[in-house]
Amino acid sequence: MTITRSRFRELVGLDEPVVTLVSSTVEPHDGYVVEYLRLRLGDTDIRGILTRPDDNSRRLPAILYGHSHGGGYGIGASELLEGRDYLLDPLGPAFARAGYVTLCIDMPVFGERATVSEAYAAKALLWHGKSLFGAMLSDHSAALTYLTGRDDVDPARIGAFGISMGCVLSYWLAAADERIAAVAHLCCFADFRTMIDLGAHDGHGIYLTVPGLLRECDGGSIAALIAPRPQLVCIGEADSLTPPLALERAWAELEPAYAAVRDRLERVSEPGVGHQETPAMRAAALAFFGTHLAPPMG
Description:
Radius of gyration: 18 Å
Largest sheet: 9 strands, mixed
Helix content: 25-40%
Strand order of the largest sheet: 1-2-3-5-4-6-7-8-9
Distance between the termini: 40 Å
Number of helices: 10
């Protein structure tokens, strides 16, 4: 199964709003800086949290961070600084100390935007043939545009990262938008048809329901749109949200897209591990971005 990038964008309803910076408050920390941002996306003001190294006198590589779900509707972008119980520790400071500018924004119905429930927002959009995840991807795309315009960011070296819901945000946006140079995603890569057959789809929120998507593509064919750009897939083999059969079928669709550039597709698959980040995944992600977002030689 194959799909074009333009058709995929149409299917998910990716419609990036205009983004402008409203305000920024800078807070120094030990070895890194936090910026609390107000971004206007279309007619909506939202919260963004950005971490960066102390020294921003030059253009740095950047990471667009998709926060997770986990039922933590009040968390949103705060995950970058506070972490989650399935993360080793907060990734904002970790990425900043590794030399990256990292941005996370509140997705619809999360963080400061948790003014209505996920079901409330998703049902209203589904009546119009749209999806909550399409709205999320559109806002995530706007955040990417903001990152590319920062004076301290090298727009040619922007990666995407996320776990769980953030995993899907990251690899779907990378599939839709070639401005993402490399993507590392954790704990949510799977074939959705297989998930439905196994009943595992019901463990995911209604936010991810995109009308008509499976008639034309699935997890593997979506991820294949990222090729030949580098991609790291991390999975726990005991994760009920990504059953082994669903992972293998998605991988079987993805892997051929990298036949000519096999070194750009990496996989960390850990037996006995559930829906969580592990030290091996963290090490692989840092090494992956270190390799693929490094400045050009010469």
